[in-house]
């Protein structure tokens, strides 16, 4: 089963400010103003753009569904799936009590709730959810506990349930970043083999081209490729302060649109398709239901 618009999906891309997904108009402006509502800006603007783009992709699967957001963090993705994706109910779980308290305070809507829970040992009854989403979670779970996480997702999914997951593409991501807490990054083949043991994998997608690979940038003589990548990535992600002035918000909004445009999601069917891309996404079905 492919994404409703897998061949043309380009989230708020450079060619336009709006895309339609399952009949819903998605503009950069409401998302940016939603970010401004997260005072005191709980996450940096690039991080927010990166995270919310995953949920923009997933919202095409959640209409009228009961959804679990595993490792929800500060909860804005769960809120988005409920408000824009029109999910019937969304439950976000996480182990970070501070993040959960923030989520409960900021996202007080009837069909969204948050619970403290370990994703490798959840307290939900079997077959509780139509859809489980888990973005940028797998790399934080040790290889020893990864099978337990997968087994828990299978357990809480309904027989025809869907699992949408993302994780960094190790060959590219590790070349430009060493994020604290990443203990289990995978490449395309490893992720494919892992998911195939538990689910019917309906499709792989890639997101976020590594601009150094795309442009063929090598850096000056005598500077290693990794050092150059780290330096340029830090320069690239400098934050624009969000002041109350019109020009400050205008500049930040334009930057937000550019950041979203860089996070285009495209189908992938082979290792060649993932070369140079930062993030791997997969859409899976409970093995009792074929794609």
Explain what this protein looks like in three dimensions:
- The protein has 291 residues and is an alpha/beta fold.
- It has one domain (18-285): Vaccinia Virus protein VP39 (Rossmann fold), CATH 3.40.50.150.
- Helix content is 36%, strand content 23%.
- The chain contains eleven helices and ten strands.
- An eight-stranded mixed sheet has the order 5-4-3-6-7-10-8-9, sandwiched between helices. The chain has a two-stranded antiparallel ribbon with strand order 1-2.
- α3 (76-83) links the parallel β3 and β4 (89-94).
- α2 packs parallel to α3 and α2 crosses α10.
- It is globular.
- Residues 1-27, 210-220 and 231-240 have low confidence and may be disordered.
**CATH fold-level topology:** Rossmann fold
Biggest β-sheet strands, sense, barrel: 8 strands, mixed
Contiguous low-pLDDT stretches (5 residues minimum) are 1-27, 210-220, 231-240
Helix content: 25-40%
CATH architecture: 3-Layer(aba) Sandwich
Number of strands: 10
Number of helices: 11
Shape: globular
SS-derived structural category: alpha/beta
Rg for CA atoms: 19 Å
| N→C terminal distance | 5 Å
Average pLDDT: 76
**Strand content range:** 15-25%
CATH class membership: Alpha Beta
Strand order of the largest sheet: 5-4-3-6-7-10-8-9
N-to-C SSE series? EEHHEHEHEEHEHHEHHHEHE
Can you tell me the number of structural domains? 1
Give the CATH superfamily. Answer: Vaccinia Virus protein VP39
